[in-house]
Amino acid sequence: MSAGAGNAWIVRAGGPLRGCLRVPGDKSVSHRAVMLASIAEGTSRVHGFLEGADTLATAAAFRAMGVRIEAPAPSERIIHGVGLHGLSAASQALDCGNAGTAMRLLSGLLAAQRFDSVLTGDDSLRKRPMRRVIEPLTQMGARIDGEPGGLPPLRIQGGAVLTGIDYALPVASAQVKSALLLAGLYARGDTTVTEPHPTRDYTESMLAAFGVPVQRHGNSARVRGGMPLSATRIDVPADFSSAGFFLVAASLVPGSDLLLEAVGINPRRTGLLDTLIDMGGDITLENRRVLGGEPVADIRVRAARLHGISVPVERVPDMIDEFPALFVAAACAEGETRVTGAAELRVKESDRIGVMAAGLRALGADLEETADGAILRGRKQLVGGRVDSGTDHRCAMSLAVAALCCSESVRIDAVDNVATSFPDFEKIAISAGIEIEMIPCTATK
């Protein structure tokens, strides 16, 4: 247990979830907006920026490298770009906090700078493997190393001359793909990245918005080195991952009817949506439109009787961040749900398979862990108890959703990291009708 440090939640099952919600801006888009605007020529405006600890760490890193970033209002940023070669050395290590996206993408962007850089992060991030990004960047000519096992901190030597490569990713990863495409902006010739399965394409879409054409063919993306970026306006849609917790909650709690506004529905992100519909979910997309170059919609979700399925393995990359929430849906659905091909969950902010399995078992769920997923046999109702989030923001919020299906209250320890991606979770959850209370971890239930 993580008791003794930070805060915990007490969550109680209540009535149906109702109302109209707007979850915070997309984290992936917010990271990339700051990065590309910083190396663009001219002044860019970002609307809907996520005010989370992860994205704030990215903004702080670019400020440390000489980029002027203004925040005239919450969720608004004005970024005065310095061009591809205008960044300057930071006076100390760049702290990525808990953000694996920031560390991996910055590795590519900084690999060809004139100056040395060090990328570090919190205890959790320093345990996350970076070899998958170090090795291909080294093939391009980068001089980058980490601790034994490829762990952070990462030390990047300046002055490297990069050459474009044609690289086939052994494991589908939007973060590694993006790191190589960003490095490719500085490389001689073309850089092509081919994925075994398509992953989220925010980097490709945003590069195009900043005036850099990305050639796409099948599962490959190619950029040409030396192309300048031009400042633009970025409108960040609401984060689908944040909406996912409420999609599951409203599906499970009888009588619920929620409308989630302006949620990004990039097809490389909506695997959970498709899976919940396959499980019998009552979910519809309304008012489809484009916001900042990304497809968005208002998502209406009503309570439904979910049933178990075998999750298609090809869908895994499109819902890798949403599996903790899916595990909750499966634990409360009728019948058996099987998840395979999701070994990546073992090396996220926590071992998400292990954390969710332990938490759900403590609440009375029937499940078996496997090396790359789980087998869950649904139960109509779980019991209450005390669980630990593993200091993982997505596990914490998912276990809060599980509490809505419990006969007694649930205490969830170590919830402070929720601020990395969803700083207003409690406020928005309460507005939807969820009974959630923050207490110090030293308090008793």
Task: Give an overview of the whole structure.
Strand 10, helix 5 and strand 11 (about 190-195) form a beta-alpha-beta unit. The chain has about 450 residues and is α+β, with helices and mostly antiparallel strands. Helix 1 packs parallel to helix 6 and helix 10 packs parallel to helix 11 (about 395-405). The model has no long low-confidence stretch (mean pLDDT about 95). The relative contact order is 0.16. The chain is about 30% helix and about 25% strand. The protein folds into two domains: about 5-25 and about 235-440, UDP-n-acetylglucosamine1-carboxyvinyl-transferase, Chain (Alpha-beta prism), CATH 3.65.10.10; about 25-235, UDP-n-acetylglucosamine1-carboxyvinyl-transferase, Chain (Alpha-beta prism). It has a four-stranded mixed beta sheet.
List the helices and strands and how they pair.
Blueprint: E1 7-12, E2 18-21, H1 27-38, E3 41-47, H2 53-64, E4 68-70, E5 76-82, E6 94-95, H3 100-110, E7 117-120, H4 131-140, E8 144-147, E9 151-156, E10 166-168, H5 174-184, E11 190-194, H6 202-209, E12 215-217, E13 220-224, E14 233-235, H7 240-252, E15 257-264, H8 271-278, E16 282-291, E17 294-302, H9 323-331, E18 336-339, H10 352-362, E19 366-370, E20 373-377, E21 385-388, H11 393-403, E22 410-413, H12 425-432, E23 435-440
Parallel strand pairs: 2-15, 3-14, 6-7, 10-11, 21-22
Antiparallel strand pairs: 1-22, 1-23, 3-5, 4-5, 7-9, 8-9, 11-13, 12-13, 15-17, 16-17, 18-20, 19-20
Helix pairs in contact: 1-2, 1-6, 3-5, 4-5, 7-9, 7-11, 9-10, 9-11, 10-11
